[in-house]
Amino acid sequence: MSLNEVFLAHLAQTSPHPLALDIVKAEGCYLFDRNGKRYLDLVAGLAVNNVGHRHPKVISAIKDQCDRYLHVIPYGEFVQEPQVRFAEKLTSRLPSSLNSVYFVNSGTEAIEASLKLAKRATGRTELIGCRRSYHGSTHGSLSLTDNPNKRYRNLPLLPDTGHITFNSPDDLALITERTAAVVVEPIQGDAGVRIPDKSWMLALRERCDETGALLVFDEVQTGFGRTGKLFAFEHSGVVPDILVLGKALGGGLPMGAFISSRERTLLLTHDPALGHITTFGGHPLSCVAGLGALEVLLEEQLVENAVRMGALFKELLVHPKIKEVRGEGLMLAVELGDADLVQRVVMGCLDKGVLGFWFLSCPTAFRIAPPLCITKKQVEQACGAILRELA
Ligand SMILES: Cc1ncc(COP(=O)(O)O)c(C=O)c1O
């Protein structure tokens, strides 16, 4: 059997028609398949490889840690320097109210744990998400996700959950003294990159303060420079009570985290203890890779590059069939207003060695979210390929 046949026969699939690219190497902004074909990566592993593939500093941090230890004990018992140093660095870049990090394995686990923390902290049960949101694939995250296709085969989901319309001032009244948490992507990703008004974000914060509901920002996709700020909440200046991270957090290795005040995360330690536990959370390899990636992001000024290259994409992607290029930094949606055309452009670009991708809840647009180290020449190459497919 060929590798492709074994892939189809023995690996569980998520869709009837996987792309099934056979990638043998990745470097910087490029992927290479078994036939030696090179792909310019406009997906970055779905907002994971923000510093590019296999950055030497990240690789060397992983190798050094391999020579020390891998897993030694479930999260939270031992002093593990990789976790401690990474938490120290992360909190140094955040407001002082976000000073306590809980490392987990994935974005969805971080959402689950933050819902549990919010219920504990408020003594309430109601959880609110936003329309067209995506927060992950486990039951709690799905309960806040508003994507009927993802939900309907899994009903019933968590009780006492509801949704407000993203960016709707009127819907803020649905947040009440019963609400434990309101979970919001500060820029919606899989809805096709939707940016809220700053005034709505300020009013959301105010309503949560008035009612005592905790404001949870899901920055799993928007974090680590993706939107042209280190964290997307910096666009509005609204600080959440709990910040949820994932994807690029681990520098290419699996990782999630939720960050809140020390006072709040301490609630997980008693009444009863072990309020959230996780065997592999904060794996030493993920921590050193994540710390290495964060240092690279800052040293190489990739956040600033995301702003410049995002603007260049917007400047170059002008065509009668492009209705809009939405987004901030390098979290972009190219709106074509036509799902068939999106399919043709994405597949045509792939054929020509440029990898773009779809959105879960916006079939009429495609995604541009490359590594943040993408160069001017590479942006020009990508835009050239997209415009040729549209011609
Ligand atoms: C905004 C957002 N939250 C949560 C998740 C879930 O993260 P994970 O796939 O690591 O569970 C995703 C994944 O795409 C996401 O985009």
Tell me briefly what this model is.
With 391 residues, the chain is α/β, with parallel strands linked by helices.
Write structural notes for this entry.
36% of the residues lie in helices and 16% in strands. It is of the alpha/beta class and 391 residues long. A 7-stranded mixed beta sheet has the order 4-10-9-8-7-5-6, with helices on both faces. Strand 8, helix 9 and strand 9 (242-245) form a beta-alpha-beta unit. The chain is globular and about 60 Å long. It binds pyridoxal-5'-phosphate. Pyridoxal-5'-phosphate (PLP) binds at residues 106-108, 111, 134-136, 185, 189-190, 218, 220-221, 246, 256.
Question: What's the total number of strands?
Answer: 14
Strand order of the largest sheet: 4-10-9-8-7-5-6
Strand content: 15-25%
- What kind of oligomer do you see? single chain
Residue share in helix: 25-40%
Instruction: List each distinct ligand once.
Output: pyridoxal-5'-phosphate
Q: Kindly state the mean pLDDT as a whole number?
A: 97
Please work out how many helical segments DSSP would assign.
14
Overall geometry comes to globular
Compute the gyration radius: what is it?
A: 21 Å
Largest pleated sheet: 7 strands, mixed
- Structural class by SSE content: alpha/beta
**Low-confidence parts:** none
Distance from first to last alpha carbon: 40 Å
Give the helices and strands as they follow along the chain.
HEEEHHHEHEHHEEHEHEEHHHEEHEEH
